[in-house]
């Protein structure tokens, strides 16, 4: 194997790594290749751990887009913040959570380190991106400084803002328009790196072509870095350190440069609830089962619903989940989906089944009264259509 072929193989491996995005267990990815037909993806179970897994993005031009949607990793109330959320979007169960509870007056000491939030040096929660971590820290600081009697109204306002479909559409349309130049540049860079350069070296030789090829490559990566810096500053003006790091990587690493749009799009819509993101991008057939899952998790989260026995922590978890549930049900009704219909008992798979788990919908025969996979969730009985007693 020649050195040129070996170098090209290494480049393919590096680029393949850039096409694998790590997601937390409580996040979902929405992926498209041609800009139509969005698909929902959960973090992989095969290659991952308790905290998350990988999701692959389309590697070929026009390079597609990935968006990440995640719920807040904390439960909020007027009394404080709990580093635990009972409802999860991940197919692999809950991610590792701190379970730490802090009173509102303690949140003046909140700090962000990369994607993690700390209160007075104690770990609170980890977000899916630096953008989400900074947004959550800003929200907690607002709540901490708000008068106690207005915090509940502020929390209701925060939840309502997470379900503003019109605001999401505006953000997405703006991003599409502003990122057009960067998309053209990254697609051109892909063609240069994997088509033009190999073809030129194969037919003309490295000695005769390396100078113009290097100039072209540097020109494209420099253009991508400039466009990336400009768009990142418009979208995330407060993240100066992260912007500098990403710009250097985009400029010096062609494989990273090709996926520059992904770096910008991943945290773009994390201020919105995953249900709203899914409602905008998924077709109705794909949205309905996801809406059912979100609703089931809020109505029947896996046990235990709170990892600590502190009364304020238990009340915080219940308040936050109830607040989200109410907003989710209102959102679904606006989209002409009946929450009660989505929560209807599953179709009986066997006559011997007498009950089902309200969360995972697994069906059970006689002699079982709880679902071990859902933490000991009590089962619900099947009823015959005529209203007879359970079988």
The SS-based structural class is alpha+beta
Number of domains: 3
Q: Using the alpha-carbon principal axes, give the shape.
A: globular
Q: Write down how many β-strands occur, each being a DSSP E stretch of 2 or more residues.
A: 16
What is the arithmetic mean of pLDDT? 91
Supply Rg.
24 Å
Number of helices: 13
Distance between the termini: 69 Å
H/E topology pattern: HEEEEEEEEEEEHHHHHHHHHHHHEEEEE
Biggest sheet, spatial arrangement of strands? 3-2-5
The major beta sheet can be summarized as: 3 strands, antiparallel
Unreliable runs: 385-391
Proportion of strand residues: 15-25%
Secondary structure: helix percent: 40-55%
What does this structure look like?
It is a single chain. The chain is globular, with a radius of gyration of 24 Å. Helix 6 (206-235) packs antiparallel against helix 7 (240-252). Helix content is 48%, strand content 15%. The protein has 391 residues and is α+β, with helices and mostly antiparallel strands.
